[in-house]
Amino acid sequence: MNLGGRIKQVREELRWSQEELARRAGMPGKQQTIQALEMRDSKRSDYAAVLCNALGINLQWALTGDGPRWSDEHSPAPTGYRVEEPPPAAADEFTFVPRVYGPMLSAGPGRYAWKQEVVDNTHAFRREWLQAKGLHTNECRLISVKGDSMSPYLQDGDIVLVNMADRAVKSGEVYAIAVEDELRVKRLVRRTDGALEVKSDNPSPQYPTEVLEGAKIERLNVIGRVVWRGG
Hints:
Layout: H1 3-13, H2 18-24, H3 31-40, H4 48-55, H5 59-64, E1 94-96, E2 99-106, E3 112-118, E4 124-126, H6 127-132, E5 140-144, E6 159-163, E7 174-179, E8 182-190, E9 196-199, E10 210-212, H7 215-218, E11 221-230
Antiparallel strand pairs: 1-4, 2-3, 5-6, 6-11, 7-8, 7-11, 8-9, 9-10
Helix pairs in contact: 1-3, 1-4, 2-3
């Protein structure tokens, strides 16, 4: 069974029609795309990530069959739930967050912009989930992870959702930070002596911990806290 077969399996378990899945994925009118994906039992699709988010399943499991089936952040709809005629609000159940590319540019104190910001419809988030976590789409950005310095927590090519409204450092949490024009994703740890450790989760010696003290801490640009991660 490939991607198309796993998408179909979960959709049928949830008793959703292809049209319903398209609506919930923010793809109204594209049920034929889902039908083609399922009929071919395809290995890949440009819509894989958004369909997995709608179904509440892990992208890795959908693509390979490996790892946990259900996403930690998205719980599946109750088994047996069926919507013959989706309510008008169903199409508004999900929303998209801008994804950023290229070098980061300062846009004033505490504000940041990137060379390119687009809503590319690759990752849909339930509005209810965002609201429960106090997140607002205009304050969040999706950022691609490069390299393996944060492995195993983050892998090269992963996507993280960053809450730019949450910049106060909580020890042990993962943040997007800016070093000049370079964007990094690191774990920040406060020490008892007041210093701040900028840590990589990868224990390899090639990723040493950087210790910031005094004025260096003040010059650290914290973009926001990582609140979700996905493949």
